[in-house]
Specification:
497 residues; 19 helices; disordered C terminus; mainly alpha; elongated; 0% strand
Length: 497
């Protein structure tokens, strides 16, 4: 069969890409020959060689398509798994409460069937969101690499793919805002960018303050000042789920929070004070509140002393915190360290129980110290107002020092994201921020910028990731390609591509 057979069969363009010399280069997607070969002068068996090349090219193309499918499936699994797990805990937590409301014959109570239906929809949406994000990123990464060359586009390909994959967040709902998630991902991107800056010769001196050992605790203090102040003064600025979490672990009834809010704002209400007195009577304590009192201690803990209240709250708070952290430590131990459990079960379980005890102590000290600092600040200054509440709750963040170092930055960034959202919500409601800055889907824009940074660091600055996060990214998206062609001895002739 002559080379002309390739042309006659419609493969002229492909035959023109057949190169003599070195083998096919996986990095740039082209042959490693020194120049374009004239296929008309090739011997008769060149078409057989081309056939083999074409088969290998098809295998490579099918491998790329398979990578896209696998990434989409893994992304869907992570999204559906995380959201489904959270929904399951939410369903179980609200089951008893819904039964009680239904037994009272209250109208408008959401049934268990409705809750399960909504949970399934949310699980599917989040699965599609992360599955589409992963598939879109890998697709764009492969398309750009094939069209313009992997080596040539290495510095910006992942950045572009990450940004273009960001709008997949819209699959969670066109009218569903995800400001908290977007800000948290932005915080993660900022941390990665800061780590890149620290090791950079150009920006290293600017980013040096970020290496401060206790920077995570300082961030937690800043976050606490906004979050805990909003918990007392403006709960609607916090995400509903986070507000519910604080209501549980804050350990105070709604009537106490409402009375404290009016007192701190300088507008004590006799009706709210009577409601607080009624609440304490139901609890077996005879409490009398004076509209002219200077400190809120009686509102917070009734007839108890400040020290006695802190100690009692610490014990009760620890009991509330244990069920929160027990699955956080034990479930990963059963999944991630399942092989180690067979060899050294006591060591892994002991480590999980120790982590549970330590984190539970942190949360209980954090909440109890918030009330302690509020009482102490009010007694020191003989008054209480919004700035003093912000100061007292700032000091509550020092409790983060109880946690181990590796978890501090995670917790501080988690709280900082919620603090930033709450702060801007408060500023907007007070009229300090123009409405023009309130973009309808600012969360998608922030998320896209953040994912662009994160995926760029994943492809180009892998050492700034912790191994556990890097392993997850590698599992979903696939390990980035080997070094460029000019770093591989067998590909010296590929630079021209």
């Amino acid at each position: 069969m002559s080379p002309g057979g390739c042309i006659e069969n419609g493969d002229a363009e492909a035959a023109g890409n057949c190169k003599s010399g070195d083998s096919y280069c996986e990095h740039c997607g082209r042959g490693c020959g020194s120049g374009s070969a004239d296929y008309s002068s090739l011997p008769a068996f060149s078409c057989s060689s081309y056939s083999l090349w074409l088969d290998s090219a098809r295998l490579r193309e099918s491998g790329k398509f398979w990578r896209i499918l696998v990434a989409s499936a893994k992304g869907f699994t992570i999204g559906a798994g995380l959201k489904g797990g959270l929904s399951l805990f939410s369903i179980l937590a609200g089951l008893k409460r819904r039964k009680a409301l239904a037994s009272l014959g209250k109208k408008g109570v959401i049934t268990n069937r409705d809750v399960i239906s909504m949970a399934l929809k949310e699980t599917l949406r989040y699965g599609l969101f992360l599955g589409t994000f992963a598939g879109t990123f890998v697709s764009i990464d492969e398309i750009i690499g094939n069209l313009a060359g992997h080596r040539r586009t290495a510095r910006w390909r992942a950045l572009s793919a990450g940004a273009l994959a960001g709008p997949s967040m819209l699959l969670t709902g066109l009218n569903t805002q995800h400001k908290t998630l977007a800000i948290y991902i932005f915080m993660r991107a900022a941390v990665l960018a800061a780590r890149c800056g620290i090791k950079s010769k150009r920006f290293g001196h600017i980013c040096k303050p970020l290496t401060w050992s206790y920077g995570d605790i300082f961030l937690m203090c800043l976050s606490s000042s906004q979050i805990l102040s909003a918990y007392v003064l403006k709960q609607d600025s916090l995400p509903p789920s986070f507000s519910s979490f604080l209501n549980i672990h804050g350990g105070k009834d709604t009537v106490i929070l409402e009375g404290l809010k009016s007192f701190v704002s300088g507008m004590p209400s006799s009706n709210k004070f009577k409601a607080i007195e009624k609440y304490y009577r139901a609890m077996g304590a005879d409490v009398k509140l004076d509209l002219q009192m200077k400190t809120p201690c009686t509102i917070i803990h009734g007839n108890q002393s400040c020290g006695g209240h802190v100690l009692n709250f610490l014990i009760q708070g620890y009991k509330r915190a244990l069920p929160v952290y027990l699955p956080v430590y034990l479930v990963p131990a059963l999944i991630v360290h399942r092989e180690g459990l067979m060899n050294r079960p006591y060591e892994i379980l002991a480590r999980g129980l120790l982590g549970t005890a330590r984190s539970s102590l942190f949360l209980s000290v954090y909440c109890s110290s918030a009330w302690m600092w509020t009482c102490l600040t009010a007694r020191t200054f003989k008054k209480i107002n919004i700035p003093l509440v912000a100061l007292a709750t700032f000091l509550a963040g020092l409790a983060l020092a109880i946690e181990k170092k590796s978890r501090r930055i995670e917790i501080s960034l988690y709280c900082l994201a919620r603090g930033i959202e709450s702060f801007f919500s408060c500023m907007t409601d007070l009229g300090y921020l123009p409405q023009s800055l309130n973009f309808k889907r600012a969360d998608v824009i922030i998320f896209s910028i953040s994912t662009a940074i994160i995926m760029h660091c994943y492809a180009q600055e892998r050492e700034v990731f912790r191994s556990k996060y890097l392993n997850v990214l590698d599992w979903v998206f696939g390990v980035p390609p080997p070094p460029p062609c000019d770093e591989t001895p067998s590909c010296k002739n590929c630079k021209q591509h």
